[in-house]
Amino acid sequence: MNLLRPILIFLAGALLLTGCSFRRTVVNAQFRQIDTSFIQVGKTTADDVLRQLGPPAPFASPAENAGLISDTHLRYACLETRDTKFFISYFLILPFRWADTQTIDELLIEFDPATGAVSRVNRTRRATIRPPLEFADSRPELISEDLTGRIKP
Amino acid sequence: MKTGCDYAGGERRTFNVERPTLNENPAGQESSPHPESRFDVRRSMFNVRRSLFLLLAALLVAGCTSTHSGSRTLATDAFDPAPKTKAEVLRRFGNPAALTTREGTQFLAYNYTHTNGGGLGIGKILCLLIQSEQRCSDNVTFQVGPDGAVQNIRIQANAADASGSIWPF
């Protein structure tokens, strides 16, 4: 009986501190919904794109630059993470954590190696889910659009 | 053992009062009209205490983590039928994570990762933290010729990588 009371008080305190954390993190939000109206296929060069949009930015480390920039392409990507955590308390750390990370908006601009002008523009949009409340099956299909045909030559 | 007083008869007498134990309850000193039920209460209290300990132990080992990155793993029927042109690759898989060009041939690389793990920590002061993670990574590379046709598809499925750590190591 003497031991039961402190345990009950501890559990009650732990339950009082219990909470759920719902977090959404967006990296490179400036690359979401980039206006591509200034790009002209066959005319606009990489210098023009860099002057207008700036260089692509990595999400976490400079090592990602290898996939974002090369002689033949520039890739602007916006990353989103949805994170759900469940805390028992600050004294008892239980990492109940679920996360889903997606590049929700990407713009890929390719250049012709011979002329250096834009040869293709492709935009891909994905959606994040919030596990464990949403399952991967409920994730909407990605939308990939070839914008080359919509841009004035 | 307790000490009590009795003033009956005009004389103060001191006597010892034995606290009844679980197994014995002497006649004349019953504190409960139902000694058997009191024993049951004590036993059930023991069971509650044990259950609470078990619950706490279950909570301690139940911490888990789950992280997804990338649209989907290769377990799906993503390659049935296989894409034949670069435009089809981009339409179905989106923009690649890496794009390299070598002598007119393009390599479109995609990566999908899925991480599962668990952890346990007691107190920020004690900082006892144990974590383990298992990561599965699927890598797909499309080789596209100068004419835009897919020449080859290389798949490295479920390249598993496990890691673990015990604080502060």
Assembly state of the chains shown: heterodimer
Q: How many beta-strand segments of chain A?
A: 6
**Straight-line distance between termini of chain A:** 84 Å
| String of helices and strands of chain A | HEHHEEEEE
The separation of the N and C termini of chain B measures 53 Å
Whole-number radius of gyration of chain B?
Answer: 36 Å
Query: What is the strand content of chain B?
Result: 35-45%
For the structure shown, list the relevant keywords.
heterodimer; A: 153 residues; alpha+beta; 5-stranded antiparallel beta sheet; 35% strand; elongated; B: 169 residues; 2 helices; 7 strands; disordered N terminus
Give the topology, please.
The complex is a heterodimer of chains A (153) and B (169).
Chain A: H1 4-17, E1 19-27, H2 46-53, H3 65-68, E2 73-87, E3 92-93, E4 96-111, E5 118-125, E6 143-146
Antiparallel strand pairs in A: 1-2, 2-4, 4-5, 5-6
Chain B: E1 2-6, E2 13-17, H1 35-61, E3 64-69, H2 86-93, E4 98-102, E5 105-122, E6 128-144, E7 150-166
Antiparallel strand pairs in B: 1-2, 3-5, 4-5, 5-6, 6-7
